[in-house]
TrEMBL record:
This is Cyclin-G2. SMART domains: CYCLIN. It comes from the Eukaryota. InterPro entries: Cyclin (IPR039361), Cyclin-like_dom (IPR013763), Cyclin-like_sf (IPR036915), Cyclin_N (IPR006671). It comes from Apaloderma vittatum. The keyword Protein biosynthesis does not apply. Belongs to the cyclin family. Cyclin G subfamily.
Length: 242
């Protein structure tokens, strides 16, 4: 549960900084690979998550767009220092042997999506890649999908979307993709049911979606009092003539 909550925070951070879906997916990948190797205390998870986010951003984003460690800490409110982040980065780097790049489900999703569009006679906008990426991010918020093969998870998302569209042509193309990728029917069926349930839960009104979450600023009582006083002390500006 704590891992899932931290991934949702990474999703919110990705949206805040305007980073690509690839940055979020890679950050989750780095986080899950590290957690698979190390037992960590819950109090350290926040610092680990922010560090994974920073490492992923360095791989994917333009260097000029990457915020400083101080700014990431301030926005995420992870309650760690820049020194803590540097120490954690060294630990993660050593454990992963500095191998941050990875072939993720997003990689296969883009690949399969391109293949389908190249072989279909239907309208190109039928398969909405943005929608598929959003569904993948929802799956990444569940720990269980860290155990799924990236190729299988990507194919499950595409297959479910094609079934919704009720397109025989697209389904036949995906069957050929499945055969070429050597994905068994049993694997596809097992993970497709889990993906279907996850997306159903995610689309329900009761679900608090990470992409709709607002950043919550935690301030002291004294700061809040000062902010309130300064608000009332701001003089009214004169009306600007047209």
């Amino acid at each position: 549960r704590q891992r899932n909550a931290k991934v949702e925070d990474l999703w919110s951070l990705t949206n805040f900084f305007g980073f690509a879906t690839e940055t979020f997916v890679l950050a989750v990948n780095i986080l899950d690979r590290f957690l698979a190797l190390m037992k960590v205390k819950p109090k350290h998870l926040s610092c680990i998550g922010v560090c994974c986010f920073q490492l992923a951003a360095r791989v994917v984003e333009e260097e000029c767009n990457i915020p400083s460690a101080h700014e990431i800490i301030r926005i995420s409110q992870c309650k760690c220092t820049v020194s803590d982040l540097k120490r954690m980065e060294k630990i993660i780097s050593d454990k992963l042997h500095f191998e941050f790049k990875a072939t993720t489900a997003l990689t296969f999703l883009h690949l399969y999506h391109t293949i389908v569009l190249c072989h279909t006679s239907e309208r190109k906008e039928v398969l909405n890649l943005d929608k598929l990426e959003a569904q993948l991010k929802a799956c990444n918020c569940r720990l269980v999908f860290s155990k799924a093969k990236p190729s299988v998870l990507a194919l499950c998302l595409l297959t479910l979307e094609v079934q919704t569209l009720k397109s025989v042509e697209l389904l036949e193309i995906l069957l050929r993709v499945q055969k070429h990728s050597k994905i068994s029917d049993s694997d596809l069926l097992y993970w497709r049911e889990l993906v279907s349930k996850c997306l159903a839960d995610y689309s329900s009104p009761e679900c608090c979606k990470p992409d709709h979450k607002k950043l919550v600023w935690i301030v002291s009582r004294r700061t809040a009092q000062n902010l309130q006083n300064s608000y009332y002390s701001v003089p009214e500006l004169p009306t600007i003539p047209e």
